[in-house]
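F.,

This is the one I mentioned.
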């Protein structure tokens, strides 16, 4: 890999590798609403994993899609509905949400009595 790319070095350091690769590979345009991005608002352009598996990062970019944060949200809302109706996922966020969040709450309520 050469260093001949157009992504600022400071940016490269703080982002995950696949994001940088995707930004090099694809034009900075949202794949849903076609909004265009530049350095100043690049924060709002996110890399979506087409199969929702964040560890599936093929070098050819076939599992990546650049989406603005709004369209990305929509994409994930759809996916979560799918899960509720019997799909399955390895998504970490979902695991965190199902990790009995009320156990601690109950303990707190008992204490405050
Ligand atoms: Zn969009
Ligand atoms: Zn995504």
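My design for it:
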């Amino acid at each position: 890999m050469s260093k001949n790319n157009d992504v600022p070095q400071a940016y490269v350091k703080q982002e995950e590798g696949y994001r940088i690769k995707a930004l090099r590979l694809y034009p900075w345009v949202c794949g849903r609403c076609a909004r265009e991005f530049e350095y100043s608002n690049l924060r709002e352009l996110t890399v979506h994993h087409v199969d929702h598996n964040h560890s599936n990062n093929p070098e050819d970019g076939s599992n990546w899609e650049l989406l603005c944060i709004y369209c990305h949200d929509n994409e994930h809302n759809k996916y979560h509905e799918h899960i509720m109706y019997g799909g399955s996922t390895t998504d970490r966020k979902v695991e965190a949400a199902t990790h009995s969040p009320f156990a601690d709450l109950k303990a707190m309520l008992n204490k405050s009595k």
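Residues 30, 32-33, 35, 67-68, 70-71 surround zinc ion (ligand 1) (CB under 6 Å).

Talk soon.
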